[in-house]
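Q: Please design a sequence for this.
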């Protein structure tokens, strides 16, 4: 098995802003004003949902190419529920992460409803982010020396 490693780097900016470098790209992560941020970028939780949509779209294009399907487009509406008491440390019995993630996909292709459903399930099965959300990934955290 050949493993591939990707990496990003980042540091804290002003207030709640976090500056991340992802390859050749800069991403500014922040919190909304209601959460004491300056709203200069999406929150980390919004970025996860956006990345999930990006992953679905990328895998959708791969799959359409492999199956020789003319995929004219895909649209995504993604929402998730979480209990802020968990991440704020107010209730240790509450998970800080998402409780539910809902993805609504509109597929523009000459496929039947059943074919679109099967296509969407295959996209979900092959999406690394969906896999991480569904199955978890080992997380190793350490202090830099």
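A: Design:
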């Amino acid at each position: 098995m050949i493993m591939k490693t990707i990496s990003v780097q980042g540091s804290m900016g002003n207030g709640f802003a976090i500056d991340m470098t992802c390859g050749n790209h800069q991403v500014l992560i922040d919190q909304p004003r209601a959460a004491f941020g300056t709203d200069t970028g999406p929150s980390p939780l919004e970025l996860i949902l956006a990345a999930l949509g990006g992953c679905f779209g990328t895998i959708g294009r791969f799959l359409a190419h492999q199956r020789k399907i003319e995929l004219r487009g895909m649209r995504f509406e993604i929402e998730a529920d979480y209990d802020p008491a968990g991440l704020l440390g107010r209730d240790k019995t509450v998970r800080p992460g998402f409780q539910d993630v809902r993805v609504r996909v509109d597929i523009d292709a000459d496929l039947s409803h059943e074919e679109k459903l099967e296509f969407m399930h295959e996209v979900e099965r092959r999406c690394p982010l969906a896999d991480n959300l569904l199955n978890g990934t080992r997380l190793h955290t350490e202090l830099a020396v």
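Q: Thanks. Anything notable?
A: The chain has a mean pLDDT of 95. The helical segments are 44-67, 84-87, 113-126, 128-135.
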